[in-house]
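Input record (one chain):
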Amino acid sequence: PTPRRVVLGTLLAMLPLAWLIGTASGHRWWQSLAWPDGLLGWSGVLLALAAGGAVAFAAHHAELRLAGASFDWVVKPLAAIRLDHPTSIASSLAAGVCEEILFRATLQPMLGIGWATLLFALLHFQYALFAPRLWQAGAYFVVIYLVGFALGLVYEAWGLWVAMAVHAGYDYVGLRLLAPQIARARAQLLARGAAK
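The corresponding structure, as predicted from the sequence alone:
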């Protein structure tokens, strides 16, 4: 998919859901979009992007040791995507904005941080379905839960914009670190398709 399709698909999937849940519950998540004041203006959001990227870099290297230096099972669902820089940027921004609006600004005030994070981790569990061992799927779920919980704490401490920036930075660096493996998986997928 093109970056435009990635962004539109994510927006069309999550924002109407967040609007419906917010409207039905009486919670107006869009009131969380007030821009942060003082140090948490542009500089704070840019620092949050960098912090998210740094956490992704550290988590990627820790997960490499845990997973035995292979994320083939994680990248398999992403093999159909040509993951260039524009697509990585679009995917990261779309996920950072839409997922934080849905899980942090809409669900977290209604359900609490624990339940909203559990739903966040369940949404991301699709990538663990290809894990060769059950413990790897479980470890992946725990890591995603902890990342989601941290994003919930960031939302409560510094607001929605900072949580969106941390999430987008984390996703972008994570995607770029996995890009070589995703490209190899994509080439294998295309070679199998050409062989048919």
